[in-house]
Amino acid sequence: MARYREAKCRLCRREGMKLFLKGDRCFKDTCAIEKRNWPPGQHGRDHRPKTVGYGVQLREKQKVKRIYRVLEGQFSNYFTKAEKKKGITGETLLLSLERRLDNVVWRLGFAAARDHARQLVTHGHVLVNGKKVDIASAQINMGDVITMQESARKNQQILDSVASIGGRGRIPAWLELNAEELKGTVVALPKREDVQMPIDEQLIVELYSK
Question: Whose CB among 12, 116, 175, 191 lies 3.0–4.6 Å from 111's, allowing a Cys bridge?
């Protein structure tokens, strides 16, 4: 499975904001963007060119790709499917990404970062309605119940992550967590206001419309 393997903090610095790619470290003073909030590279500190037009649209697409940890081809497929559905294309795109199983596992606090959530899913540690699902991009539906395999319930990394979910921000209203049982329930489908990262999805629609 193809995935980004380089330094993650460079991605946050390139976008000029925290993308929360390294779990709890992103909430500490050791976060790289707290110390070096300029683009990576030899001249990043002294030269941040003004971005206009196509560049602004491209940066918005790159930002969303990196937040949800998907590659170019995957993202393009999400956009193509969003275009074919009824409703606002940009909003449909974001909500499809938000409904990915790995994102839901992260939102519930079972993992400190989306990459860790993806690993839990692909290694078969996650159950949806009592059945193992090892596809990170699987779309969850209202009423789905997400739990961990019995073998993973004593995993200290998972337990620590659930214990610290309060420090990483509240669980969104469309999800419900039973921390003692390591069980999450999808009580509703996500809405646009549930995606609280500063994203202008219309710029992405404009980019793909060229």
Answer: 116
Q: Which pLDDT score is estimated for 137?
A: 96
Tell me how far apart the alpha carbons of residues 29 and 182 are, in angstroms, rounded to a whole number: 29
- How do residues 119-152 score in pLDDT, each as one tens digit? 999 999 999 999 999 999 999 999 999 999 998 8
% of the chain surpassing 90 pLDDT: 56
3-class DSSP state for residue 130?
coil
Q: Is there a domain that residue 123 lies in?
A: yes
Query: Alpha helix locations (H) across 16-85?
Result: 32-35, 54-68, 72-84
- Closest of 37, 56, 9, 24 to residue 202, by C-alpha: 56
Contact between 126 and 148 under an 8 Å Cβ cutoff? The reply is yes
Q: Which domain holds residue 150?
A: 100-189
pLDDT per position as a tens digit, 177-194:
999 999 999 999 999 999
Q: Please return the burial class of 57, using the count of CB atoms within 10 Å of its CB with bins 0-12, 13-18 and 19+.
A: buried
| 4 in a structural domain | no
Give the integer Cα–Cα distance in Å for 169 and 18: 14
Examine residue 3 and state whether it is found in any structural domain, yes or no.
Answer: no
Q: Where are the beta strands (DSSP E) in the chain?
A: 126-128, 131-132, 145-148, 175-178, 183-186
